[in-house]
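question for whoever is on the cluster today: can someone run the full assembly for these? two chains, 333 residues total. i dont have access anymore since they changed the login thing
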Amino acid sequence: MMVALEVTPAWYLVLGALIFSIGAYGLMVRRNPLVMFMCVELMLNAVTLTFVTFSRMLRDTGGQSIVVFVLVVAAAEVVVGLAIIVALLRKRPHATADDVALLEG
Amino acid sequence: MVELVVFAVAAAACLVGALGVVFSENPVHAALSLVGTLFGIAVLFVAQEANFLAAVQVIVYAGAIVVLILFVLMLLGVDRVENLRVEPLVGQRAAAAVLSLGVLALVVGALASTGYEVTGPVGELDVTVADVNRLGESLFTDYLFAFEITSVLLVIAVVGAITLARRPRGEEIVDPGQAEREAQLARRMAEAEARAGGDGAGEGEGAEEAEGAEAGAAGEAAAEEVTR
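^ ran it for u. tokens below:
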């Protein structure tokens, strides 16, 4: 006999927490600015997953509306962040995140 | 049963993709792993009846943001392999692992303390209405001001990106690999000329020609190569 496992919303929340902490670990460990960027995207996605799950648990569309805003902010963040990375890497082709300290006056 | 299989497959895709982003040495592989995570999350959105958001997730994230990141990777040629074995800051990895596990423990602990149930007012959701309709109504009533401010944010982001990425007038384009490529090209030209010249005497001639033709450092490097 197979035990019928039911997928509860808590599973989604735990998955979101896992992806968030993996992204946070990557952000703290990696030195390539573009990979750090992707880790930020991972964390944002984990949060959107959590928002959608809470939206379903609470039977409220507000969570999904917030996800729309998170998407827009992520797009804006990617645009500005990549522009900064392009400007930085154009000056120093092998820059790591440590070289951003050069921006200090 | 179906939901269990869908969740298992999508969650596996998410986790494998997330680990791939963090642990792949090549940034291009990291970007492709990110696509796996994004698709997995889109599938989980569909499983939770957020169909519109799943479509937006695939179009905006996998379609636009990852492509933008790959564009920058290719454009700048920074897709070199990063050696993950060296650890420039001693103890950084351990500290990062402790911190991220702490975040995980905090969130899961908070969930467990409520018995994995939500607290607070539970809204009334009309399941007969499509999620796009509900989302549109919510955006244009409850969140109208935030929605308008979002457009301002996008305009600011566009202006900021142009300001940051544009070169000041008169500044030359710096191509990091240019000198190397020019030297390589001059070397190949000199080799071809030497081959065309035929015997051993031709080789020296070709080198001299290369030296005469290429006044820059690149030409000299090529000539050195040939004479050697």
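summary bc i know u wont read the tokens: The CA atoms of residues 144 and 170 of chain B lie 45 Å apart. The two ends of chain B are 72 Å apart (CA to CA).
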